Amino acid sequence: MLGFNSMAFAQGILDDIKLARMVRKGQANWAGSPQPTLAEQFEA
Length: 44
Prior knowledge:
Elements: H1 7-25, H2 38-43
């Protein structure tokens, strides 16, 4: 996989990229809060 040592490492990188895109689009407002409230979870 393009120089990645393991599939698990590559999957972690892809997950981070997906999260960054969600934050940029405003779809992951909960990402900065380690313990989102119930209301915050339903707004996302």
